[in-house]
């Protein structure tokens, strides 16, 4: 009768193992926690650029914004940020050149400081020329001239390019030809 007891013991152990495995497999699992969807205005990319590429974009943007104004000006990046225009003086066109040092501000905007201004071969007082430019230059709404502080503020966060693209400056090092900014592309996906 030993074999009968061994058989029933083995059957009981097998049944217990089956019950434990079934309980383990069928027990409810904790719910999967989905991370919150970030509420972003679009996809952001970090863009590294050179002065020559940015010069083309800046002047294309300015040409579009100032196409109906008689006073034309060019902007280019070299060792500083240069703004050049021709001013009629005594029926002669004289070149006005203003140069600045760009400074990246919190929020990705840019401040142009330490102006140097020349009209032809003459150095001019900064405050006077900035007041003149403030009144007569066809500037985009995102560019604010502050003659009293001798600076120009460029609100990049307000500029919208084609399809709503937006930029924010991260680093501007003209000596090293290193310009870094964030490009945000809006998405149409419902939230």
Features:
7-stranded antiparallel sheet, alpha+beta, 191 residues, 3 helices, 3-stranded antiparallel sheet
Write the layout of secondary structure elements.
Blueprint: H1 2-26, E1 42-49, H2 51-65, E2 73-77, E3 81-89, E4 92-104, E5 110-119, E6 122-123, H3 126-136, E7 143-146, E8 151-154, E9 166-173, E10 178-186
Antiparallel strand pairs: 1-10, 2-3, 3-4, 4-5, 5-6, 5-8, 7-8, 9-10
Descriptive overview:
This protein has 191 residues and is α+β, with helices and mostly antiparallel strands. It has helices at 2-26, 51-65, 126-136; strands spanning 42-49, 73-77, 81-89, 92-104, 110-119, 122-123, 143-146, 151-154, 166-173, 178-186. It has a domain at 51-155. The chain is built from three helices and ten strands; from the N terminus they run H-E-H-E-E-E-E-E-H-E-E-E-E. Strands 2, 3, 4, 5, 6, 7 and 8 form a seven-stranded antiparallel sheet that branches. The protein has a three-stranded antiparallel sheet with strand order 1-10-9. The chain is rod-shaped, with a radius of gyration of 33 Å. InterPro entries: DUF2140. Pfam families: DUF2140 (PF09911). It comes from Geobacillus genomosp. 3.
